[in-house]
Amino acid sequence: MSFNYQQGDYESWVKDLGTQLQTENLTDSIQYPNHIATGYTKAKNIEPGLSYRITNYTLNADIELKRVPSENFQLLIYFYELQYNEKPYCKSGDTILEIPDEFFSAILVTHSLSPQEMIFKKGTVVKGLSIQIDEQWLNTNLLHFSPEKMQLLREKDYLVDFITAKQRKILHDIFDSETATTYLPDLFIKSRVLRITEQFLTALCKSGMHNIPQFTNQKDFQALLKVEHLLSKHYNAEFPSIESLAKTAYMSESKLKKLFKKAYGMAPYEYYQKNRMHRAKELLRSRKHSVSQVGTMLGYQNMSNFSSAFKKEFDCLPSQAHEIF
């Protein structure tokens, strides 16, 4: 499947895709036909100039997404996690994005003035949040966003950044919202999209564009993605030693610890444990598992150790999670 488009708000984007797919109800949500993918894409306009799109599907066919340049500047922020057997192809402007071998979990920043082409192969798992922001919205809402910074954004075909632990927590909330106990699902998601947008734009304004990366080379960047993937996905295993993580990254232990903290804001073990506890919170909030089952799923043999770790992170015991979260 090939989908050509010019960037607008994401509700319009989803409706245009629905028209091409010939879905019966042209709404802000698509459940993909089985021959294309298994999963969904949905979008909402939060306010004029600010919209978001949530994507969660596994491809049953190859797809090509081609964005043609727009006359008006829009900032596009992708918080994406991809898993694949065959590397995706991503070209923004004249620049081809370097993709790791097995997975991609990072932030991609681009804009509507630049053409973009993405090709995902059959079997690729695509999960992510995209945020679209108009130039007028940026000028109105960002108090310290100078014309010089705006020009720097215009000059870059794309920027790649790491997903921090705080951002990943918000993303987990968004994707787990369908099973969360909430009477206001749209407001639940909107509040978290606004939070992650605020966090990212605040960091952007503070950095002066110099810390989004490339503070490190592509080899180191991909090595850090691999280490982060190990720490954030393997919840039921013991924390890997720094020595083994350094070997995975093909760098010294001191370099790994320094770059990891710079990228993710905390040491590897702290990052691992924080993600582990947030996974515990998600499992408990689903109400499908007991406390002991969740502790066992996360590799704890001693439930008192699990309770202590959970209380340290959330200031409550796992048994109280149903009442609080």
Q: Can you describe this structure?
A:
The protein has helices at residues 10-21, 135-141, 147-155, 165-175, 185-207, 218-233, 242-249, 253-264, 268-285, 291-297, 303-314, 321-324; strands at 2-6, 29-31, 37-47, 50-59, 63-68, 74-83, 89-92, 95-96, 103-111, 116-120, 125-134, 159-161. The strands form 2 sheets. A 7-stranded antiparallel sheet has the order 2-3-4-11-6-9-12, sandwiched between helices. A 5-stranded mixed sheet has the order 1-5-10-7-8, with helices on one face. The protein has 2 domains: 2-207, Jelly Rolls (Sandwich); 219-324, Homeodomain-like (Arc Repressor Mutant, subunit A, Orthogonal Bundle). With 325 residues, it is an alpha+beta fold. It contains 12 helices and 12 strands. The chain is 43% helix and 24% strand. The termini are far apart.
What attributes does this structure have?
325 residues; Jelly Rolls; Arc Repressor Mutant, subunit A; alpha+beta; 24% strand
CATH architectural arrangement of the largest domain: Sandwich
The CATH homologous superfamily of the largest domain is called: Jelly Rolls
Strand content: 15-25%
User: Can you give the helix content as a percent range?
Assistant: 40-55%
Order of secondary-structure elements: EHEEEEEEEEEEHHEHHHHHHHHH
Q: What is the total domain count?
A: 2
What integer value in Å does the Rg equal?
A: 20 Å
The CA-CA distance between the termini, in Å, is: 41 Å
Helix count equals: 12
